[in-house]
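Researcher: Going back to the complex we discussed earlier. I've cleaned up the inputs and rechecked each line, so this should be the final set. Can you rerun the prediction on the complete assembly and write out the structure?
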Amino acid sequence: MEHGTTATVAQTAGYLLFIPLLPLIGALLLGANAYFGNRLPKILVSLVGCGTILLSLCLAINVFVDLQGLPESERVLEDSLYTWIKAGDDVQLTDGTLVKGGTFSVDVGFLADPLSSVMMLVVCGVGFLIHVYSTGYMAHDPGYSRFFCYLNLFTFAMLLLVMGNNIFVLFVGWEGVGFCSYALISFWYKEMPNAWAGMKAFVVNRIGDFGFIIGFMLLFWSLGSQGVWTMNFRELAANAHLLAGMQWGGINVVTLIALFMFVGASGKSAQIPLYVWLPDAMAGPTPVSALIHAATMVTAGVYMIGRMNFLYSMSPFALSVVATVGVCTALFAATIGLAQNDIKKVLAYSTVSQLGYMFLAMGVGAFSAGIFHLMTHAFFKGLLFLGAGSVIHAMSNEQDMRKMGGLWKMIPWTYGTFLVATIAICGIWPFAGFFSKDEILWKAWESGHHLHWLLGFIAAGLTAFYMVRLMSLTFWGKNRSTEEQKQHLHESPWNMIAPLVILAVLAFGGGWLGVPEALGGNNRFHHWLAPVMGGHGEAHVTALPADDTDGHHDAAAAENAHNAEAEAHPAPAPHAEEVQAGGHGSHTVERMFALASVALALFAAVFGYWIHVRRRDIAEKAASFLGGIPHRLLLNKYYVDEIYNSAVVQNLLRTTRLMSNFDKYIVDGIVNGMAVLTRATATINGFIDKLFVDGAVNLVGNAIIAGGNRIRRLQTGQIQQYLYVLGAGVTIIVIVGLFIL
Amino acid sequence: MIGLTHYLVVAAVLFVLGLLTVVSRRNTIAILMGVELMLNAGSLNFVAFNRFAPGFPSAFDGQIFSLFIIVLAAAEAAVALAIIFAFYKINRTVDADAANSLMH
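Model: Rerun complete. Updated structure for the full complex:
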């Protein structure tokens, strides 16, 4: 870093490598076991599969403790394994100075800061619980070892993603989780729809990844043109200010980079327009849906934007795009969730919707609120999926909610934990979802995004409604299952129940980490993330003048440090409150908004219960409202898949076919024509060669043979003949000699 | 008076007869007889030239030559007859044309 600002030197931890390495070792072992015909006993497979994640979890907790032991501004641990890429030679900068070689290097390095430590804990913690759950859920599957191999590989890739200290390592993890997602969606690959779903997820993700690649290459290039060649996050953060005011084709470069990266995020995190793969991804085993398609992988986009918050803070336009896409997705997916009948599909659309909330948080600059929701969502959505898996398990693989009902008596543990998660996702105090979701909505309002707030608010009501609908159809009311299913109906084994209970505790209490000041907490979660999220964990993108921001944040950070030290005193100084509120609203207003959200959620929940359990006729009437068109629209997911199919996929296929035909008939035609021409020339050449060249050679040979044949007749071997000729010759010589000479 | 020319003519006739016999006959014994005729024609020439040479009778080189030729002819006849006899034992014929196994 000869030219740019050097990031502060981080301490090394030394053991960060082992956090992703352990799951990789597990994956290799289990993969080898699966490849060589499952020789290991099942108990050993389970031990390796869960044990490696547990060890990683312990290390992640250790990282967390280590970080807490450091002063707030120095909470960064960075381990560099080796230099992966080293490039660049002497560079002539625009101002004429010469930078000597080796300007760019990428390490295989791991970063542990407050943000990645949260992600590590979520990935390892929820991941471990889901691994344990899988030992029960997949117990009778012939691909048991293969399944755990993929799960471990996924955990490895996800840890790489959240721990990488530069974009390249993040990208390796990014692609790795994409592959594992593909492999796990298509886990039961013998059935075609599963294979198709995997391919769909992969292809849609590729579209997003393409945008992501363009985004970070553009970042690399534009920062490089300022003399700073780096991919390291901390160096990027320290030098991002160099990009301010850079234009490219009349567009702000930062905006361009942020938008391209957001394309990647929206692919990975299932946002409009690239969300279509996630509902189909439910074809995979349910623990996979819980781990990859609810708790961890789909939040990679949110994490990435959180990691790049310094960049997004510089581009209000990109932020508003993120917020708008997020809230539209939240609302859009929530409406689809209203009418789905497959229990996992409802949860899938719910996930899309909740991810929309996270992007809304990112978009209004409340980065740490987004990460907070990411965490609580991992708890309650992981729990919901695992609970759904338990239901499906109990119902002999039935996923249609219309054939369930009244299950609460039969599977009480599943029911209880599911209920906790439902209350949490509905956002009812004091469950986890309340704190995170409400904070997002409040930040949206506070930062002046009133329309976004309204849409998010409606989506929150819809969330409560469809979740209670799910509860009503599944657990309450009359049982509608077949006699055979009833006979097999059973509670899941302990190794499936235990993770449910632990997750239920987290879904209940996880929100208390981030109780806002308005509700008497001191928002520890935000203070924890503050060093990464730029001062206060949120960028005041709307109102404050730019000059004021830095000083303001420094003051806020100082106050935060003060608060963190004085945790015993829950009430912060009034001056600090004034500074943190930033003049956008008071705590009374925030409390009113919270009350309104809870009231809405309660109302929607009670209404949902009433029409789905008490008065089913109303629900049926609602379904046939306006000739059933709205219901059918929702049931068929607004026909988005069909629209994509006819608008994009078919055109793409048509173009491809056109290209193929062009290749087949024109390109191949030219090639084949050349070949035919060559062959014809060669034939003529061959003919000439045979006739003339060979002819001349053969002629000589034949002449010699013919001559030889003639001449050899002279040599008869009969001495008498020779004598005769000899006598004749002598006679002639004598006659000539005597008479002529 | 019989002179040298008479002898030479007889010798030439003898030689030509022998040569014709050798050339035209297929029977190897007849060929051998032709060879003998030509040898005799030769020795007749030697004797005739010796008789009419200036140093006669003290010089008799020609007579000596003819004696050698007679001995040679006898030896030759013995060897040739032995070959012919061996040849006959293999081929059951004395036809010269049958002696062609080196040709092919």
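Model: Worth noting: The mean pLDDT of chain B is 89.
Researcher: Good, that matches what I expected from the previous run.
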